[in-house]
Design brief:
112 residues, mainly alpha, 0% strand
Length: 112
Amino acid sequence: MRRRWIFLAPLAIGGFLLFIAIGGEVVRQLWNWLLPPLFGWRQITFWQALGILVLCRILFGGFGRHGCHRTGFRRRLAERWDHMTPEERERFRQGMRRRFGFGPSTSESKEQ
């Protein structure tokens, strides 16, 4: 078992570094191919492209496991929805419409 880790650890580190290098190069090539001709922006270096890649990862991808907290939230919401009565569901919908500014529901507008 220990021999396997001795072989796999450098291979994993090398693969990770190769993945980072390819990602940075792809971002640099796309940036330098698209943005200077379209918008007149300057070309960037590999290290700037790597910085953009990290920034996008932080802003849009986050760190850690993907989607675990979201799927748990959806599952809990679906369970709560299944246990609601039709009146409770309609009250929930109306609350969401008021909260997010969608106005009265279609059933409310027909009653008025």
